[in-house]
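**Sequence with structure:**
===
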Amino acid sequence: MSILDLPDEMLLCILNKSNNINALYSLVDVNERFDRLALDSIYIRGLDFTGNDKSQEFHQFLDRFWTSILRRIHHQINKFTLGQPSIERLLYVVDYPQLYSLSLVFCQPEIILNYLIGGDSILVRLVNKQITHFNLKTEFRTTELFD
């Protein structure tokens, strides 16, 4: 018996137990069935890119994720959790029309000022016009800015 013999319901249960970023990265473009399951709108509503985000492998991961996956699903994403290295690589490259929740995780709190200063900042525009839940987490504390 192979994994391809399992019914879709069982495969979705397995996917729901795994990290959706890693599952997307591993399953997209494998075959048509895995594409359909991994790119299901329910499964990709919320994406968390705060894993091991300081390694070179993570940057290569982001490059492939952007070129082969994110361009296909950006219009379906509702929630984003981004670490410092992934903000410019993911948030600034495409519009996310369904995005309403944004969590940012920073190791150095002063760096957030670079993203929040200036009226033409994409982050400022998102927070002012689209985001209804914004969470900022630093290594020192978490601050709920508005909900």
Remarks:
- Helices lie at 8-17, 20-27, 32-38, 56-73, 84-91, 112-116, 122-129.
